[in-house]
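Support reply, case 0932

Customer input (verbatim):
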Amino acid sequence: MSEDPLIVITSAIKTAFIDHPGSGHGTTWDQVTKSDEESTHLAKAVLVALRKAGYSVTKVEDQNTPKP
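Our regenerated output:
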């Protein structure tokens, strides 16, 4: 069973500041975890923005996974 894109994006946002504290421009973000509500809100905003821009999020099956 595949995970819903909202769940995947929410999880990434929730842990981004812990897992990847480097901001990419020489500074470091505070290592804090976003609340579930904040993470879900941001994930929904990302999905809406992608849809408005004409993108669709789909799961790509791993070609190395054995098929039943």
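We compared this against your earlier run and they match. Two observations from our side: Residues 5-21+30-52 form one domain. The CA atoms of residues 17 and 30 lie 7 Å apart. Please reopen the case if you see a mismatch on your end.
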